[in-house]
Protein: dITP/XTP pyrophosphatase
Organism: Desulfosporosinus fructosivorans
Amino acid sequence: MKIILATQNQGKVRELRELLVDEEIEVLSLLDIPDWEDVEENGVTFAENAAIKAREAVRRTGLIALADDSGLEVDALDGAPGVYSARYAGEPKDDERNNDKLLHLLEMTPENKRTARFRCALVMATPYGEEYLTEGAVEGQILTQRRGSDGFGYDPLFYLPEFARTMAELTLTEKNTLSHRAQAFRKVIPILRTLARGTSSQGKI
């Protein structure tokens, strides 16, 4: 069965493919859709934005679509950047500028006040109008400088005290056991298995 993950972020695609390595499910991405145009993510929650993307991917492809909206919530910034995480430093979205802005805003914040969490909402939509929501979250704190090169987004600044490493210092296998996205992805896999047994639709691509 083919499904589409509504993202152009190949890091997210790799994470999901790793989790589905033993399944007969082929994961495509928005890079496989000709002339894809970004849909406006005007929701006020992660779940709303994920649903917007999933519905549009279903409409364009006829495939079961998964879309996540993930973000960083920093307690000292009253939950920001939140749903604006990807474009925190403005357009075009850029991980390095986002991290620079975060470091600047937290420059005077002491270590014990730099608590934060990654949160993910994942929506799976089917061509038959069904929708499923799963969520995940992981707690940590924001460092004063980047560490690690195996992640993306805010991973190099997000420190996990129980591992004494940042998210960007974890292996993909380790990340897939604990990340907010991995939690949400794992919760949707049993639903995908059921759908894979019950459908032969290959969509439009």
